[in-house]
Amino acid sequence: MENNKQPQLINPAELFNPAPYGFSHSISVESPSRMCFISGQSGGVGENHVLADDFKTQVQNALKNLQIVLQSHSMTFENIVKITLLIVDHNQEKLEIWTEEARKVWKSTLLPTSTLIPVSQLALPGMLFEIDAIALE
User: Fold this and answer.
1) Where are the alpha helices (DSSP H) in the chain?
2) How far from each other are the two terminal CA atoms of the chain, in whole angstroms?
3) How far apart, in whole angstroms, are the C-alpha atoms of residue 85 and residue 34?
4) Where does residue 45 rank: exposed (0-12), middle (13-18), buried (19+ CB within 10 A)?
5) What one-character DSSP code corresponds to residue 19?
6) Residue 23 CB neighbours (<10 A)
7) In this structure, what CATH number is given to the domain that contains residue 94?
8) What is the span of the domain harbouring residue 101?
9) Total structural domains in the chain?
10) Among 3, 9, 55, 93, which has the minimal tally of Cβ within 10 Å of its Cβ?
11) If you ran DSSP here, which 8-state letter would residue 20 be given?
12) Which pLDDT value is given to residue 53?
């Protein structure tokens, strides 16, 4: 199946501009494509899933892990249309860190749609951040 249509970014004028925060309100896809559903990636590194103590490093590592999965599907961050963020003890400082790191990997105007869920804890002790994604070819 060949897909000649690109995802269309739709940010209704009646809603706030989400671009400064590193996401889009919606993305529309008109034709069938290969989709990749990516499980939550944390900031753990290596076989033993070693976690840094600080939030920023965990975000950076989680994005590196996400990039590894994307590359295994011959995709990039530009293919991602939806992300879900899980942040332990979410606050404004952590949101600013996330936004700064997101801007580094999403360089185009086609920012993914996003849901952020503050949580009290994640699957493993010490995990502060997790991101899952849906990518579209």
Assistant:
1) 55-72, 92-105
2) 11
3) 23
4) middle
5) G
6) 20
7) 3.30.1330.40
8) 34-136
9) 1
10) 93
11) G
12) 94
